[in-house]
Design goal:
Layout (H helix, E strand, L loop, with lengths): L2 E2 L5 E2 L2 H13 L4 E12 L5 E6 L4 E6 L1 H4 L10 E12 L4 E14 L1 H9 L1
Parallel strand pairs: 5-7
Antiparallel strand pairs: 1-2, 3-4, 3-6, 4-5, 6-7
Length: about 120
C-alpha cells in the first residue's frame, strides 16, 4: 500500500489514505442520530444531498434514490429527523458523510424557527 517517495519516506497516496479512512469507518457500523435538515438538494439522479445539524455541529449526508422513494414524507430544510446511517469518506474529496438508509420525521426544528423569527 505505502510507497517510498523521492526522500525515502514511506507514505500513502491521498487516494490510499481516503480508502483507509473509509475502511476504518466501516467498522463503526450503523448509527442513529437526530438533527435538523438544512441545505437540501435533490440531484437529477434522484439522490438527496443534505446537511443535518444541531446547535453546535453539522454533518453532510446523502440518501440514494432508492431510499428516497420509500419515504412517507418529503424531507425539507427546517425539519427535525431521526436518521439511521453509516459513516463514509467520499474518496474523491475526502469528505466525511453519512449514508442514510432510513429517515423518520421528528418535528419542526428550533433552528429554523429561530431563523424565521429573525427575518
Amino acid at each position: 500500500m505505502a510507497s517510498t517517495n523521492n526522500n525515502g519516506i514511506k507514505c500513502l497516496t491521498v487516494t490510499e489514505l481516503n480508502r483507509l479512512l473509509d475502511k476504518t469507518l466501516e467498522g463503526v457500523g450503523q448509527v442513529t442520530f437526530q438533527g435538523e435538515i438544512s441545505q437540501i438538494t435533490r440531484a437529477a439522479s434522484g439522490h438527496l444531498y443534505f446537511t443535518i445539524k444541531d446547535e453546535e455541529s453539522q454533518v453532510a449526508a446523502v440518501m440514494w434514490r432508492g431510499v428516497t422513494s420509500s419515504l412517507g414524507f418529503e424531507p425539507e430544510a427546517g425539519r427535525v429527523v431521526v436518521c439511521h446511517a453509516v459513516p463514509n469518506v467520499y474518496q474523491k474529496s475526502g469528505k466525511l458523510q453519512m449514508i442514510v438508509h432510513k429517515m423518520l420525521p421528528a418535528g419542526e426544528g428550533d433552528l429554523q424557527k429561530k431563523f424565521l423569527e429573525l427575518k
